[in-house]
Amino acid sequence: MREPHRFPRLWIESLEDRLTPAVTVRFDYSFDTSGMFANPSARAAMDRVGAALAGQMTDTLSAITPSAANTWTPQVYDSASGTTKSLPGLSVAADEVVVFITGGQLGGALGIASGGAYSARGSQAWLDVIRTRGQSAVDAGTDFSPWGGLIAFNTATNWDFTAGAPASNQFDFDSVALHELMHVFGFGLNNPSFTRYVSNGFYTGPNAVSVYGGSIPMQPGTNTDHFAQSVTYAGQSAIMNPAIQVGVQKRMTDLEYASLRDIGWSLGATTPPVPVPPPAVTVPPVTAPAPVPTTPSAVTPATNQGATLTRFAVSADTGGTGGVSVFDGTGQMLSRAPGVSAAGGTRVATGDVNGDGVPDVVYGAPIGEAPTVTVVSGTTGQVISQFLAYEPQFLGGVNVSVGYLTGGTRADIVTGADAGGGPRVRVFQGGNPNAVVSDFWGIEDMNFRGGVRLAVGDLNGDGRDDLVAAAGLGGGPRIAMYDGRTVAAGRPQKFAGDFFAFAPTFNGGTYVAVADLTGDGFGDLIVGAGEGGGPRVTVFSGRELVRGVYTSVVADFFSGASNTRSGIRVAARDVTGDGRPDLLTAPAPGTDGTVRVYAAGQLAGGVTPPTFLELNSPGWLASGAFVG
């Protein structure tokens, strides 16, 4: 008897989906004119590095897709050409980071990375997506979600583009590319989610400390961008050391992945095995990668481009790369003022000092330098005046404001001593250093040494600008208001008594600006909380202030994350181009690095208004900025 045929039974079994979404890197070579990345091996190496690093990241990043109503202009700094590149209309896919790759002569550096900046206009939801990419902890400074950046590589280097170990006379491209890509993803570069863990020369991120077995020494003099050259892990020199030798290959280790977790990146449960690197050859290390420009202003124009457009200026605060950038009402950078201290910290204002009808840029020296005031022509971009506002031995920094107190055709320059100085105010008629028409204590407390912050505008509607003085750091939120005509005559008289803009117990001082935001013919007083306060902005009716009424509030809101405690800087300019001044805010150190513009017509009491324009730069993250 034959056995019956046995037919196999087919089973369908549902399996659990264990695919984990990963971040991808899109490398763009459109700016590379060197020919270095026309080499398929060089591009293959970049793809290999991008997959090795970003492929472990499981964050969900929102797409950035511009439209007619929601626009942006990303910017990257190209160290190979020394210019800023603008990318209007760039789209970034979900879970994608765009990194531009170039080659060029970089001196002693093998590679230089820079983070992506941008300007944007549109709905608040759109602006939020660009800034945070859907990651809720970005504004708190505990997460980092970039849209992209740029890496420049040295074309004069003998590179090994293979996946294996380099020859004894070659530099391993993968190792350097990993190092620079780590910067783009937030290691160093003034990223607050990284710098919050740098203290007294050591990195103290909990994940990295756990892996390393203690705090990790940072390389002195590298602006907290690198681990010390002596740091090793798993038998190799750390990727984030500032230099590498020829013949040496490095790969990602648990230490680097742990630092990414500290920054806020989500990573897979496991990381790839760490290959044992070949022994290092005895060759002197190359120069560490140069410090990355930290503002989107590292261009060299000095032309009359856009001279008829509305202009405002932004400068980096102390710790940021020096530079004063001038923007038009679309957020397009028009020029960069020359001669600014590399230490940053310059206070900036704009106004027509030379009487040619184009706003000029005026900035005061930062703390630690002689009290110099510099005027840069808005027409030519050249320095047209420079003078000492106070005695040369005063090194406390200079606050500046520009306006028409004396009634001439040229704007007057008003200076205030900054931190460490008394609240001394000086008024230079028409910007002439030899024509001081008033020199007095803006805050009537000669023993106060926190300096004075200033604003100029027509509070009482008489067609002549008036002067507002506010106590600086360490002072209460005390505001004094002076009739401009009496200031110009050298006999300053107040409209009414001083008042406190915020709770009298707050001692971080305030930042001030004056502009007619309500359209009633009276300049309104804009007050931003100083250091130690949240980013609170309050606008008081100027019509009521000059009558001694301090309770008429036009607007009261937080410009940025309300849980930060670094304060907010304020200014006013007609950015929208409708003939009315708008309200501008600049980030304090350690916040989100975003300059915001609020249209005057959108201000409404205690409601946070929508932003008309936002500008963001990696250089303003840790250092903060001033706007004028």
Structural account:
- The protein is mostly beta strands and 628 residues long.
- The chain is 11% helix and 29% strand.
- The strands form ten sheets. Strands 3-2-6-37-36-35-34 form a seven-stranded antiparallel sheet, covered by helices on one side. Strands 1-4-7-5 form a four-stranded mixed sheet, with helices on one face.
- Helix 1 crosses helix 3 (173-184) and helix 5 (206-212) runs antiparallel to helix 6 (254-263).
Question: Layout of helices and strands, plus pairs?
Answer:
Elements: E1 24-28, H1 40-54, E2 71-78, E3 83-86, E4 96-104, E5 111-115, E6 117-121, H2 124-132, E7 148-154, E8 159-160, E9 171-172, H3 173-184, H4 192-195, E10 198-199, E11 202-203, H5 206-212, E12 216-217, E13 232-233, E14 236-237, H6 254-263, E15 311-316, E16 324-328, E17 333-337, E18 347-351, E19 360-364, E20 372-376, E21 383-388, E22 398-403, E23 412-417, E24 424-428, E25 436-441, E26 452-457, E27 466-471, E28 478-482, H7 484-488, E29 499-500, E30 510-515, E31 524-529, E32 536-540, H8 542-545, E33 553-558, E34 568-573, E35 582-587, E36 594-598, E37 613-616, H9 619-623, E38 625-627
Parallel strand pairs: 1-4, 4-7, 8-9
Antiparallel strand pairs: 2-3, 2-6, 5-7, 6-37, 10-11, 11-12, 13-14, 15-16, 15-38, 16-17, 18-19, 19-20, 20-21, 22-23, 23-24, 24-25, 26-27, 27-28, 28-29, 30-31, 31-32, 32-33, 34-35, 35-36, 36-37
Helix pairs in contact: 1-3, 5-6
